[in-house]
Amino acid sequence: MNTATGSGPNPHTACVTETGTVHVPVLVVGGSLSGLSAAVLLSHHGVDCLVVERRSGIGNHPRSRVLTARSGEVFRAIGLEPAIDAVSCRPSGWFQARTLADATYTRLDPAEDPSTRISPAGSRLCDQNRLEPILLADARRRGARVLFGWELTDFVQEPHGVTARIVDRATGWCRTVRCSYLLAADGTRSPVREALGIELHGRRGEPRFLSAVFAADLDPVLRGRRPTAVVFPGREVLFARGTPRAPLWEYGMPDSPFAAGACDDGPLGRFVLDRLRRVTGLPGLEPDVRSVLSWGASAVMADRLREGRVFLLGDAAHTMPVIGGLGGNTGIQDAHNLAWKIAAVLRGSADGRLLDSYDVERSRVAAHTLWHVLATARGLPQALHPETLQLGCLYPDPGGGPDNGPCEDPYRPTGRPGSRAPHLWLAHDRGRVSVLDLFRTGFTLLAGSLGQRWLPAGTRAAAVLGVPLAAHRIGGPRSALRDPHGTFPALYGIEPGGAVLVRPDGYVARRWVTAPHPRTDLESAVREALERPAALSQEPARSAVWAQPHRL
Question: Fewer beta carbons under 10 A from the terminal one: N or C of the chain?
C-alpha cells in the first residue's frame, strides 16, 4: 500500500471536534491561482471537487500581473474571457527612463502585442487579486466547494483513493475527506510535497525582491502617458496596476535590504517613501501605500510531479522568478493539462496510465521554462521569448514519432503531434470563429476540405470507446466552417484529404497527413489515437534545467 502522511503549515492546529466524512472525487489543497484554476477546469469537465485554503480569503497584494495568450485561450474556452476583460487591460508597453518625470521614455518592446497574430486571446495585464475572485465565483457556480480558513493536517494514500483530514483553523473542527485524487497547489513550501519526500532542485531565496503597492496621483509627471511599466537605473521598476478607472502602482526593486516588516514610520516605511519619491520625480509625493512584500526569488522544480494519487501543480511543482509572469501562467497550464485527464479516468474512458503523462509533459515544460526565465534574468542571448515558452511548447509525440525538442516557433507552427493546435480564423454563418473555439470538453477531429470520410469514422470510434468527440470539416462544399484563404491544410501540415485529432486541452494528439486509401480502416486509426492521446514511455525532463551547457 502506498501511504504518505503530512502535517500542514501549522502542525499545532488541534482537532477538537470531528464533524463527519466528505466524499469527493478530487481534493485540491491550496486556493490561490493554480488551485482555483484546477477547481474551475475540473468542474468544467464535470468533476466534483473540494478546495481547502488555509488563508482566510483571497490576498490583496496583486502578485502575478501578466496573463499570457495561452492562459487567455484557456479561460476563453470556458467562457471567462468577458469577465477577465472587465478587470484587465492590454499591455501598453515597457519603457526606460531616469525618473517618471522625464520628458521622453525609451521604448523597450514592440508597440503592439505580437501574440494577437497567432492567438484569439492575446496577452493581458490582470492582477492576480482581481483574477482569483473571478475564478472563485466561477468554480462555485459550477458546483465546486471552496473552503477558506481550512487546512490539510494529514493524508494517507490507499490502493483506491486518498483519505485526508482537514481542520478549520478558527474552530478546530475536523473533517475526514475521502477522494480519488489529491492535487497539491499549496505553494512553494508545499507541505504535501514535503510529506511525500519529493525533493526540489535549484536555487532558493536569492536575490531578494521588494515590492510596494500604492495609490497616488502621478498625472503631473505622466502627462497622459500610460505605460505598462517603466524601468529605472538600478533595475528598479514601476508597474501600472489596477485598471484605468481604479489605477494603482507597484514599485519593485531587486537586492532588497529588508527580509520582512510593516510599512509604517519605521526604517522600511521611510525607505519605501524615499524610493517612490525618487523614481517618480515627485519629491513631495505622499503615496497611500497599500501593501509591501519582501521575498526571495526562487528557481526550483520538484523531482517528480506525481506520487501515486497525488499530483503537484503550480508553485508546489516549480517556482520561478517573477520575470515575464510565467510562474503563475505555467501553473494554470498544469491544471489545464491535468483536469481533462482526471475526468477521462474517472469517467472510465481512459485507464490510469493516462495520468502518467502529466509528469512526462509538464516536467518537460517546467524545466525548459525555468531555465529560460533564469537565462532572461541574466541577460543570456539564448533566452527565449515568453510567447515561445507558452505558445510553442512541445509535448512528446503520442504516436511515438521523433522528439522535436521542447519548443517550436509559434509564429511558424507545424501542427505536429504534441504541439499546440495553431489558431486560425474561420468564417461561419454567425461570424468568424477561431479554430481554437471548437475545442470543448472532448476530443476534436478536424478534417481537410476533401476529408469527409474522417468524420463518420471518428464519430463511430468515439462511440465505441465512450469518448466525447466533435468532428468538423474545414472548408469544402457545404461545410459550415469556411477557410477563406485556404490556409488550414498548410497550417496543420496536412493535405486537403488529411485530418488531425486534437485533445481537450488543445494539443494535437495525432495527424494523418494524406488522404487515406479507400480501403483503409479509418475507424480503427482514430480509435487507436483516442486510446493513446499522450506519450507515456519517455522519461520526464526532471533535471534538464540544470544540465544546460550555459552556467546560470
Answer: N
How do residues 28-42 score in pLDDT, each as one tens digit?
A: 999 999 999 999 999
Q: What is the DSSP letter of 44?
A: H
Decide if 373 is inside a domain: no
Whether 492 contacts 435, CB under 8 Å: no
**Does pTM top 0.90 for this prediction?**
no
**Who contacts 66 (Cβ-Cβ below 8 Å, separation ≥6)?**
123, 124, 125, 324, 325, 326, 329, 386
Closest CA relative to residue 378, chosen from 254, 217, 516: 254
In this structure, what are the phi and psi dihedrals at residue 61, rounded to the nearest 5 degrees? -80, 135
Phi, psi of 197 (to 5 degrees): 75, 25
Residue 94 lies in a domain: no
We report the CATH number of the domain holding residue 137 as 3.50.50.60
Cis peptide before 25 (omega within 30 of 0): no
Residue 388 lies in a domain: no
Domains: count for the chain = 3
**Domain of residue 516, CATH code:** 3.40.30.120
Range(s) of the domain holding residue 332? 17-88+126-200+301-352
Looking from the CA of 361 toward its CB, the CA atoms found within 13 Å total 31
